[in-house]
Design brief:
Order of helices and strands of chain A: HHHHHHHHHHHH
Structural class of chain A: mainly alpha
CATH class of the largest domain in chain A: Mainly Alpha
Oligomer: homotetramer
Radius of gyration of chain A: 26 Å
Shape of chain A: flat
Largest interface: A-B, 51 and 58 residues
Strand content of chain A: under 5%
Number of helices of chain A: 12
């Protein structure tokens, strides 16, 4: 590997993966605009009336976006420090999925609808936004959500259990006349009901079914409201005790926010070893290191 | 009772009720798979199109599961320390109800639908999961829910009161033309409305009814949101003061989580007498004791 | 007023308004049963199929309940310490409204539906339950709700504002074709939508209306969720600081629950002057005092 | 500028922008009544049946209100300290928009519907109410909402992301038969679903679509519930630490409410320099200052 190639890859990496240099920020903003425009373009193509009028233009644009994203994907692979790590990472897969469907569509026309997977690409918008200005809150949210992962699982477990039991009960009570034609369909009704969505495409029609549904809704609603309250109460106390636990090594005062890097009383660094661990983004970390 | 029989029962108890030995864990996992598969099987049977195609196979599987669960039920009775206690316990009844309906169906064909009661069996999934890895959170949730039991009752009381009053009012205002044919039916509408499910199968049609419903929805929504907030606020403070109250007998520091067994500062046992009381599961406790 | 009459009134007051004596508790339970039975009776009467079969019996029962409640009302007036205060109190009006409609119905048959007002009587169930065993929690809830009254008003104000603005906007955008025939009707749609009830009896049909509704729903949902969060957060801190503020005059330790009457550390009375002020119920207080 | 004109403007400013003098309060109340009456009038005009009967009277009233608000607008411009600042302020634009549409309607009859913009005028009701008696809570709410602005943005970001991804998925899975005719329309369905509004005008009809929708609803519901809980938990701790941080400069005790101006322990002013910064309303501040 020549020295020139080496420095080209580092330079590309700074632009594509980094957000600290002006070029890196500029690239992120251009990419963001491209993503939003390409998603908007896909939406417009899906509207029959618009597609009939300006379909040729929109499909040309779509090809333009796909080629641009393909180049971006290849350059990302070229510039990435650990190529396999990038390809197998969440964003690597999203990047591939955002260009693959259209090429596939050329070969098998039935794969045409897969372009919708491109919508996943929108997730990158959020990531860029996160880096630019919402880094703080979004990180706290992500960290809190990961922290509350088990609570979400418990919540989902309770929901799933209610769904199966209630779905089976209503299937027995209502029968196929009012739309409860099978247990899976009854479970669909139970989910729609217990989460208070309530489309009304399936609804109990017999007095017994309505009485049972009424009681189940009240119980489920109260149970979920209080479960939500318990989760909130526990999160509040966990955040409070986490704040309490973080003590400034310089002035020895506690009560710092979870995402604070510096003491709010004396300005000293809260975690001496955080400087290296801080980068919010693995790829960003890669961009900083040298190639061998 | 012979010594052999004695040790057989203890061995069986360890496998069936216990979760500490490899055999006990293995049994739980096999049972879990059987339960999920049997519930999935029941769901498939309920779908007419699938039942028409592979009904014979599914019904054969259903018989297999029923026989397997029957054997499990009988072995549980045989191995249980206090047999009557098991039979009358929540899980004993669930175990019986998960096999009884099919046998009943042989005698009275109209009891056929009762197989849905098997869905209750799914609750055992949650229990096994709880023991394996979610023991902590699920216990806190269960304990919190038991603690907040009165709050749930108050919440349900408020809901029930609004339901009766609003149902009666709308029955008077709307009358039978738009579906409010009786007070019970109006109450069904009131439950569906006040919990924000809102199917739309019954909805106010007169201007007066819509105005009344609109105001009632706003008031009910605000009242329930604030009631939920009050319950959450109280739970937060109760958990906080419960944490405050738990003091380590060794280092005398407080602030321990409700479900902590050891001091997070010095590692000492928080409650000396908890060792015996700790088992999350009565049956598990039984399995540990000797037979007389 | 003779001495006998005097003591009769005191005795009646203890039975009817009091809950401390066995007779008082017994009266409350009988009344509770009567109220539940009379409300259930009214529900059954409203079901046409049942009314056609056993209407004569149910209407006879209805007359029985009305006469019983009439006697109760007259005795309450007779026994009350301050008669006018009782008659004009919330429960006095409820008591009157629970018997008046049937008598009115004798004179003007069109007033027949007014019997639904009897449903208000159900509120007394809650009051009795409160005294028996939920006194603690229900009092805290009532006090908290009164404390959070302004927050509920703000919440309702925000809801009302969104309703008017959104209703007017959708009336302009959608027009009468899809059910938005007038601003009041659009406002009914806006209430049903913003509270997430969503019947679907009126729903936007034009692309512009759907886009506007989609954005409005997202904004309203996020705004109300965060407003609810703010209210909960403030309530939590208010309860916490109220606990902090309550200091035992004996051992000088704070952190007592809002509804605690005695110090949880030393058992001393928290508020020396609360003994007289404590009664949860004005009528109960009256029952204790002597007549002049 | 003459001295007379100068003092006239100051006097007008006190009446129109101020709320401290009896005249200022009186003006606010008259304005409030006018706003409510004019909004009610617009609602009545929109009801065809009422418009047919008393339309002439209502339209005359509408002209009366418009002329009155026009005079108010002109006087406000005349009396304002910094005229451009008022004209470009939120309330200046609302004031203009509440009179402009009717004049425009004279010229271009198609602009007729724009009168609905007048509904924005209702926001002034809230502002006046705020000044009169809800100043405290409303200020705290506004401040909290501004404080939680990023959290609302994150919440909206999560909602928007789910909407795009779920909308695209359902468009692919369900197709145009059940109403998912385009991605924008699918996104409308996704918003209506994920916020639990659930009209039911579009609902999945295929088993795969129902299964996908059921899982998406459960995941979205749990995610949003926990996200709401995290936001509430963070707000609770932020309010708590803000209270902790506010220390009385006189008695050095902390724990004061965010909107407290005086120490609750010693009565001293909490912020010496707040006297000048306190006014809740820029216009009010202007009214107090002298003209140059």
């Amino acid at each position: 590997m020549t020295d020139d190639e080496h420095s080209l890859r580092i330079r590309l990496r700074e632009i594509i993966f980094g957000t600290d240099t002006p070029a890196g920020r500029g690239f992120d903003i251009v990419l963001l605009v491209f993503i939003v425009a390409s998603v908007a373009n896909l939406m417009l193509i899906s509207v029959a009336a618009i597609e009939a009028r300006v379909g040729t233009l929109l499909h040309a644009l779509e090809w333009g976006f796909t080629v641009a994203f393909s180049i971006e994907y290849l350059v990302r692979i070229y510039a990435a420090r650990r190529r396999w790590a990038y390809i197998r990472s969440f964003y690597g897969i999203v990047d591939l999925l955002s260009v693959l469907p259209l090429y596939l569509a050329l070969m098998l026309p039935s794969a045409h609808y897969l372009v919708a997977i491109r919508a996943l690409r929108v997730m990158r918008i959020f990531r860029v936004l996160k880096l630019v200005r919402y880094a703080n809150d979004a990180n706290v949210l992500t960290r809190s959500l990961r922290h509350a992962q088990r609570k979400i699982q418990i919540f989902l477990g309770v929901l799933a259990l209610i769904t199966v039991v209630l779905g089976a009960l209503m299937y027995v009570v209502e029968g196929p006349v009012h739309g409860f034609t099978s247990i899976p369909r009854s479970m669909y009704w139970a989910v729609v009901t217990i989460t208070t969505v309530g489309y009304g495409d399936i609804a109990p029609g017999t007095p017994l079914g309505q009485a049972l549904a009424g009681i189940a809704i009240m119980l489920g609603y109260a149970l979920l409201a209080v479960t939500g309250g318990i989760i909130t109460a526990e999160l509040t106390n966990e955040i409070a005790s986490e704040r309490q636990r973080r003590q400034c090594p310089h002035c020895e005062r506690s009560g710092h926010e979870i995402d604070a890097h510096y003491c709010k009383f004396c300005g000293g660094a809260l975690d001496a070893d955080e400087a290296e661990d801080a980068p919010a983004d693995e790829e960003q970390a890669e961009a900083r290191d040298k190639l061998d």
